[in-house]
Amino acid sequence: MIPEYGHFALILAACVSLALGVVPLLGAARRRPLWIAAARPLAGGQLAFAGVAFACLAAAFLGDDFSVAYVAANSNRLLPWFYKLSAVWGAHEGSLLRWVLVLSGWTAAVAVAGRGLPALLLARVLAVMGLVAFGFHLFLLLTSNPFARLLPLPPDDGGDLNPLLQDFGLIVHPPLLYMGYVGLAVPFAFAIAALLAGRLDAAWVRWMRPWTNAAWAFLTLGIALGSWWAYYELGWGGWWFWDPVENASLMPWLLATALAHSLAVTEKRGLLRGWTLLLAIFAFALSLLGTFLVRSGVLTSVHAFAADPTRGVFVLGFLGVVIGGSLLLYGLRVPTLPAPAGFGWRSREAALLANNALLVVITGVVLLGTLYPLIADVLGWGKISVGPPYFDSFFVPLTLGLALLLGLGALLQWKDTALLRLRGALGLGAVVALLAGILLPRLWGEWRWGAGLALAAACWILALSGWDLWRKSAGAGGFWQGVRRLRAGYWGMTVAHLGVALAIAGAGVTGSYSLERDLRMAPGDRLDLAGWEFRFEGVREVAGPNYRSQKGVVTVTRAGQPAMRLQPEKRRYLGGQVMTEAAIDAGLWRDLYVALGEPLDGEAWSVRVHVKPGVRWIWLGGAWIALGAALAAADRRYRTRATVAASAAISAGG
Amino acid sequence: MGARLKLFVPLILFLVLAGLLYLGLGRDPKELPSALIDRPLPPLRLAALDQGRVMDAAELRGQAWLLNVWGTWCVACRDEHPYLLELARQGVTLVGLDYKDDPGRARDWLQRLGNPYRSVLIDADGRFGLELGVYGAPETYLIDAEGIVRYRHVGVLDAAVWRERIEPLYRRWAQP
């Protein structure tokens, strides 16, 4: 019965979300206080029902109820309980249910944290989120019901969860990514509410900023974790593959980054309002597109779409209604007033505008590369696949340009900056960057362009951020007194910028100085790589809970001293899939990475060995960016003060 | 009015994109030339089945050869298999890429159906396939005497495909 309760809860959640989407909006249009006030309780109800539905599906997984088709396809009696739980969102239907649950969660969070907002604004924001949720509920119920039964003859045991997903990283990564994707619905809803009201004052921007930063922090963490997971689980030693699924998460991240920055301009200076709205809409549009690219395989394999045309058409129709409708509203409602004030080209506004332009160009490049095979096909240019060379050749120079601007932008003042003020900082930055670019790569060996440029860019950011921190904290009471006076928002910015520097340095160093060997190794064979000696000891058979494993042993010595034992595995799961479990010795300065290839004659195996300096910095940098975003979101000045006067004024006259 | 019209540009861009996606829905992604055409084959460092070594494409310099992507899980590969045996009898050098497959099953398959390949490379995790841009098995790549990819065929290789599309190129690129 539990799955039926779940199904019923899902239907109720859909009804509540429809009510949430309609009643407050009508109330706002007709000025009915009761209808407006219904928004917050409805948001709570939606979360409750979505939660019940999700819990029912989780119960079906934990209880091995293989009469539920989705459970039978993605779980198995032998699966450890935590993988049974993470299997709930391991495939299409369950991950959509999770989407809906997370969206309900964000909606409820806005309802709780937004008590201080003007009632009318809050009602509209919640209603827009309710409408989006309704679309997803329909999608679930009509095309992807996770509770569908396999009756009358349920299988004795399930298939298995895709072994790629049987991993700690996959328990954590999708939920974080979804928090980010779905969190972008909040700034989107604020933007639509502002357009509906036709009031684009500074207030909505201030309310939008912490939500944008929070969603952005989750998205950053999710992407960094995904990259880390691909690194250790795919057994290839790479950390980014320009795979359509990865691009699908990168694009909303890039636009969310642009949005977080343009919001600063809009809040502080009242400029770029239309642009900010547009970014909020497009960031969510790309996160919708991304969710569907990941789950229904629009691009990864065009087959999947053809296989289930109802899903494809529904997705596209939904995107059309949500995004097309939003953009139509934008065209009709955004005010075309001339900008209230100008700014000089040495101002922070100008730097942030340039940053936005670059980020949007990068997003465009990634979008084009991702969709190009499809576009070329439709326009009859033939079938073409686009690979990493295309992405690298655009992404790398654009990112370096971004780094240059980033160092500079943080120094500039609003409106205009005196050249005199800049000269010292720029001189310092240039000298530090030049020295770093020339000298630092020598730490790893021969000088290489990639590492030189990346380290120069990283140290440029580091030097200018340090300079700015020093200047901002100067004044009465000395440096440490000054440091304590700085706002959380400032710290957030600085930490995130240093995270970018760290990630760029890591990408440059690991790209230039990674060493890789694929070779045949028989027991006793040795390999010397970057001063480490790898000795292959052989492979033995080991049994796991739902797999059998060939476990290799490689002892590593450095300068004759034993350093460690690495145990790479090759696992064969019950379903027949084979997975490579690389053995990695992680370090702040370098990773040693050994993966088993295929068995060769006798006791010999093909073995892949990497030495990857600096690769951890990439993910550490990602974590720093997320930390910075979290700090900025927590800045005290965004906590909604009980603006009683404002909300009274709105509910009285609107 | 001009300023107001400009505000609809994002909408128009979106509609164009949505239109493309819609047209893309019904597409048949069969023929797919590779991004690698007229470029060198990515470095091969894959274990060769039953040869106890890691193979290097340099061994094949000086002659044109076919890289055939297959797997025991692929039904169409079974269809094309007899014709591959026929090509091997005619003296065409074939190298197999056992794609996302289990070497044990590949070994059985070749023992039962015959082995047209000079070597079979094992790409169990599909990594080399990714570098190559493999869309699905079967696929066949023509590599010239210099190690440059000259043609890609997606789908079953049969007598008609060989005669009309691949053989002329094979003859042309056979000499260094």
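Residues 142 and 151 of chain B are 5 Å apart (CA to CA).
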